[in-house]
Amino acid sequence: MRVFHVQGDQFTELPTLPDAAPDAGYLWVGVARAEFEQQNALVQGALQRWTGGQLVDLHVSDLLNSQLPSNFDYTSWYDLLVFRRLAASGDAGTALTQIDTSPVGLAVFDRVLLTVHPADCMVREFFANRLQQQQQGVNNEARAGTRVPPSPADLALRMVNFMVDSYLELRRLLTKQLDQLQKDLFSANGGFGGWQSVLDSRNNLHLLEDICEDQRAAITEWIDAQDELPPATEPATQRERELLRVRSRDVQEHIERVLTHVRRLEAMAENAVQMHFSAQSHRTNEIMRTLTVLTAIFLPLNLVTGFFGMNFEGLPLIHSARGFWIVFSVMLVLGIGVSWFFWRKRYLGQTR
Question: 287-344: which CATH topology?
């Protein structure tokens, strides 16, 4: 468990949970899911002291559920946003079957942000290290271009945006892998055997589409909840809410981009499979056409040989010394003529 106090441009890590909420700024408590389950009573007691309210039992169960999809819910004293972050195992060349996700829970109070992460989550460490570097002046450029989040809601949206950006980076890997599958599908030898990879890719693209749709629904409900807040009277509060709406719409736009790209990849995968079968059907038709033409060429030759192979004494040329050569010449001319006819009709050779 890591506890931080954010006030203005100050970002300080606290050793333990404080007894009371700070007079200014807000608190960020980042805890792993297993630790949250073990110290639930301690966290709930701290929330009661700081905010005058606790997490609802159903929301606690949601935060402990590692299979929960992305969703949004709210109460009169806090908002709960569950967002599935990307956990891509393996290296960049692995198959699409390696893609996995895990939920990150964000309970947003007025002056407290509670985040529940999986044990190996890099989201908490990324923001903690980044804000500490800004505080210490290690990264002057980042400090000049990025301010400390002024509210728990702003910090929560930045975390969500960071998780969505990982999906945006995933698009390049998905496109590269799908392009390789397409090249294998249309290989010249026609001996493609990676149908299990194609099936796994299609299934995972469908799964990724469902995840993105859940994310879009969750952030849309978040935006609707922000719009339903009573009008702010102070200019500072109005500006803060407007910035939250802008950041929320930016996150929503990123999710839409990922969803659009995933659907495009799904269509490409479906089209590639259909084109593969069309190419295979065309190749089969070419083979059958060639065999049919060869059969048609030899059919009159078989007729001639069958005619002169009949067991009669009075057949023409049967007893002539030149009979064989005459019949052979006729068969040769007939075969060449039929072949020339089919070639002119483009029944032989490559079609264009």
Answer: Methane Monooxygenase Hydroxylase; Chain G, domain 1 (1.20.58)
